Amino acid sequence: MPDEKAVDRKTVTLEVLDHNGQRRIALRFPYDSALIATAKSIGAQWSKTNKCWHVENGSASMEAIFAAYKGQAWLNADALFIKTGNAPRPPAKHTASTPIDEPHRRHEVPLDPAQEEALQRMRQKLEISRYSPRTISMYVAATKQLFVRFPGTVPKEITTADIETFQHELATVRKVSNSTLNQMVNAVRYYYKDVLGDPARVKFIERPRAERKLPNVLSEEEVTTLLRSVTNLKHRCILMLIYSAGLRLGELTALKRADIIPERKQIVIRKRPANHTLVP
String of b and e for 215-226 (b: at least 16 CB within 10 Å)? Predict the structure, then answer.
């Protein structure tokens, strides 16, 4: 008999997507809050036009996708390797994007042995520090992008100027989001500071300015109307719990029955090991 867990496992389909003239990886799946939370955790963006989530095209994104959805969903990547002929790519042009795009697309080329060893040391250090598997995957993937940008270069020979050049290309050529830039900064700083032991090299690399967005605050009447409009008792309980405790979606989906302490009127929010939070 087939494994019940395998039967119940959800499926995420990966496809090639041409979004605003850029080649992206589309993630398609029926509406599911847990799968959406995972997509957001790897920096995926929602496309209203194409009705799907999408990330940058490249090996780093593929590694992040497979690591994030491991044990949560099946990944069907067949469409990424099938040439349909329906959307031929335009001929290459000599534009300002050429310096960053070409190394980015040559992800099939293996890394230099020294770079592979550096990533392995970084992963080992992160695991010893008890970082979450998702954070480890994102940090290693982001650092690998830097190494891919400078093929054949020993990591300790990548200078501060090289790192800033890569940052500039991410911001102005690829036009990645602030969250992606922040992930890269965090990952590279961790590698050079905590793994290589050279904090001076990354001390002054810039971090993108925080985006200031005015929150859309609901009135008490609007919140009451929203909660009362939900007829399903379980769904109403979920919404009330999120609203009253200020939970993130990922924190809600990770919640277990033992984490609710009714006699104390508290909820345990489990994060990294030995870093839990009690919420009244």
Answer: eeeeeeeeeeee
Provide the residue ranges of all domains of the chain, joining segments of one domain with +: 10-81, 101-202, 220-279
Alpha-carbon dihedral sign for residues 141, 90, 175, 24: negative
| Contact (Cβ atoms closer than 8 angstroms) between residue 187 and residue 143 | yes
- In the sheet that holds 260-261, the strands lie side by side as 260-261, 266-269, 277-279
What number of other Cβ atoms are within 10 A of residue 188's Cβ? Answer: 22
Coil, strand or helix at 56: strand
Just give the CATH number of 101-202: 1.10.150.130
Strand 45-47 and strand 277-279: the pairing is unpaired
Give the pLDDT band of residue 273 (cuts 50, 70, 90).
low
CB-based contact 205:188 (threshold 8 Å)? yes
Task: Indicate the length of the chain as a whole number.
Answer: 280
Look up residue 117 and give its two tokens.
């060893």
pLDDT in tens, 241-264: 888 888 888 788 888 888 888 888
User: What whole-number distance in Å separates Cα of residue 250 and Cα of residue 154?
Assistant: 37
> pLDDT tens-digit profile of 68-87?
888 788 888 877 765 444 44
Structural tokens at position 68: 């994030």
Contacts of 123 (CB under 8 A, 6+ apart): 136, 140
Q: What does DSSP say about strands 10-19 and 73-76: parallel, antiparallel, or unpaired?
A: parallel
Instruction: Name the CATH architecture for the domain at 10-81.
Output: 2-Layer Sandwich (3.30)
